Automatic annotation (TrEMBL):
Organismal lineage: Bacteria, Bacillati, Actinomycetota, Actinomycetes, Streptosporangiales
Gene3D superfamilies: NAD(P)-binding Rossmann-like Domain (3.40.50.720), Winged helix-like DNA-binding domain superfamily/Winged helix DNA-binding domain (1.10.10.10)
Keyword terms: Cytoplasm, DNA-binding, NAD, Repressor, Transcription, Transcription regulation
Location relative to the cell: Cytoplasm
Residue intervals of the CoA-binding domain: 86-187
Protein name: Redox-sensing transcriptional repressor Rex
InterPro entries: CoA-bd, NAD(P)-bd_dom_sf, Rex_actinobacterial-type, Rex_DNA-bd_C_dom, Tscrpt_rep_Rex, WH-like_DNA-bd_sf, WH_DNA-bd_sf
Superkingdom, taxonomy of origin: Bacteria
Protein species of origin: Nocardiopsis flavescens
Amino acid sequence: MTSRPPRPRERGIPEATVARLPVYLRTLQALQDRGTLTVSSEALASAAGVNSAKLRKDLSHLGSYGTRGVGYEVEYLVYQISRELGLTQDWAVAIVGIGNLGRALANYGGFGTRGFRIAALLDADTAMVGRRVASLDVGHIDTLEAVVRDKGVSIGVITTPAAAAQAVATRFVEAGVASILNFAPVVLNVPDGVDVRKVDLSIELQILAFHAQRRNGDGGRGAEPAGLELT
């Protein structure tokens, strides 16, 4: 059975706070890269796009309260959040579906510095199997269970077409992977205790289109279809 990232909510941290911790971490790492040693709650909240009261409450769940007149020590807060998110460990990741998106994820260099290691790439297309992508040979989907076992995979990433995603998710779960990141445009059915995070770019674009319409002054309704009358 493979291990999986700790779930901060199990330790009493609200889900909304968990969702904001990666944003704080990214902001703090940018400050760290610039050589900033301490940061006030107001400055950190502004850079992260939240209000300072919410930020202070979020960080209090980690036991970090800052120092009056000084603020937060950037390096230590990076460590606290990284530890809470499980990023001080090495998490092996397997990507299934090595199309354009799968290859882009495999080639992204930022995972390694954030505690994630791409351990395996798998695909059902025999024309793709055996190709070299991001210093890894693409394996066949039929080897998924063996790869999970031999590579110690903790997180599965699905970038397959929608029709294949559920079968891949089921195989991940049966192989002991309880953390799945799904890019396929479909809702996955998984047992209790399995965490699925869904990334649907089309939905995000549709939400942006809604707000763009509102800014353009047409109330979000856009043009009416030809031949239809409003009553």
